[in-house]
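My hope is that you will study the record closing this message with an eye to the fold:
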Amino acid sequence: MNQSMSKHILGFLGLLPLVGLTGCVVHDRRPREVIVEERPRREVIIEERPPEARYEVRSVAPSREHVWIDGHYVRVGNHWDWLGGHWDRRPRHEAVWVPGRYEPRGRGYVWIEGSWR
């Protein structure tokens, strides 16, 4: 083996540990703190009483983890539009859906969004 070839082999062997590092990913598995701030909600008081909810035919649930969220009326301009119901997946196994509702306020009504508990 000549001296030039020895240098190439030694150079290659010197780089070999670095070749093993390419493509390596280090995952930080420490729990992270997530801070969620809710924006203050502006109450919109609607003077006209909302119409009675429509009857909806439910399709088959996509899975046992899905819950039916009832449709409801929303005020758009000077008329009511129906926002149809849908299936939604529970955020966690024991979660329960609390439906949205219109609450009387003064001379009108305010929509309270549904939420998971």
User: Anything to note?
Assistant: The mean pLDDT is 81.
